[in-house]
Amino acid sequence: MKVYLAGPDVFLPDADAMAAEKKRLCALHGMEGVFPTDPRPDPAADAAPDLWYAIYLRNEAHIRACDALVANLTPFRGPSADAGTVYELGFMRALGRPVLGYSNDPADFTARTLRATGPEAQRNAAGRWVDAEGLALEEFGLADNLMIDGGIRAASGLLVRQAVPETARWSDLRGFEACLKALSALQGNG
Amino acid sequence: MKVYLAGPDVFLPDADAMAAEKKRLCALHGMEGVFPTDPRPDPAADAAPDLWYAIYLRNEAHIRACDALVANLTPFRGPSADAGTVYELGFMRALGRPVLGYSNDPADFTARTLRATGPEAQRNAAGRWVDAEGLALEEFGLADNLMIDGGIRAASGLLVRQAVPETARWSDLRGFEACLKALSALQGNG
């Protein structure tokens, strides 16, 4: 089984080392990890006029060629997960294949959003949190926007939320390993 | 043709009015707009134990029943678009149907991310922007993470970026209308 390794890990200074470590853990569980920056012959990507579009096409081809997706959903430069990762999560869910994810931040999405919106957020007449522009906050006790938690649940996946030391925010892979174990069990039952 | 109206518009204080206005514009172009909060009989959603999960399942069912998606990609509480909207964009792209989007913020994603990361971001030895934790920024001159711009391009869609007065950030629908026109043309050529 090929597992697409979605996440902002591609932006890490040691992205290649992270790719190697995730692939090693996949192999331990009898799976093959596919990192977004892995080379992949793809006629459309090879012919793309722009580097960024070649990257897009190659990532899409990687996802289509994988059997499942495990996403690093640790909040990235805001209350939510990395946008590219979220796009890929929705993409794989629509293909009907298993999606799982982990976040190295256990905080509630509402609490995290309130930290981002700052003191101008307030409760409206109905008692709901709204930001300075009047837009409502989600208050469901979830890890992120309900489409993320919901997509993983609909796929019978696992969404791990755990606290890690701040310095291990981008390196701790216990949640990732828990996803691999859950994926193994899911496939065994499937 | 049914068009799914993705966006953080659902969080607006006047979300119902926005839904009505977007549907009116769709009708002008011979299309039927479907807003995420529209009622929809769905056995799984009706049986869901949690409100948030019922919402998820209903949104997914709406998307599957639509022929195209137009997303409000205006940056939402951070450098990127709303996470739920991005998930839905990837979902619809994977279904192989047209996706288009508009942003009422013309700024480059890199510039916007630099505003979010603050003065701790710096150029590394290779000349690339990295944040305080050493994670790289995308520098492609795009509207958002390359998966968003790329998905729309791969679908032959349109991504409108335009400046609007700050007070019209969540109400200006010129970009939305441009998407509807582009979608009409796309279908005419299809």
Query: What oligomeric state is this?
Result: homodimer
**Can you count the helices of chain A?**
7
H/E series of chain A, N to C?
Answer: EHEHHEHEHEEHEH
| Proportion in β-strands of chain A | 5-15%
So, CATH architecture of the largest domain in chain A? 3-Layer(aba) Sandwich
Uncertain stretches of 5 or more adjacent residues of chain A: none
Shape of chain A: globular
* Domain tally of chain A: 2
Total DSSP E strands of chain A? 7
Strand and helix layout:
The structure is a homodimer.
Chain A: E1 2-6, H1 15-28, E2 32-34, H2 43-47, H3 51-64, E3 68-72, H4 83-94, E4 99-103, H5 109-117, E5 122-123, E6 129-130, H6 146-154, E7 159-161, H7 174-189
Parallel strand pairs in A: 1-2, 1-3, 3-4, 4-7
Antiparallel strand pairs in A: 5-6
Describe the structure in your own words.
Chains A, B: This is Nucleoside 2-deoxyribosyltransferase. Chains A, B: InterPro entries: 2'-dNMP_N-hydrolase, Nucleoside_deoxyribTrfase. Two copies of one chain form a homodimer. Chain A is of the alpha/beta class and 190 residues long. The first copy, chain A, is 42% helix and 13% strand. In chain A, helix 1 links the parallel strand 1 and strand 2. Chains A and B meet through helix 3, helix 4, helix 5 and helix 6 of A and helix 3, helix 4, helix 5 and helix 6 of B.
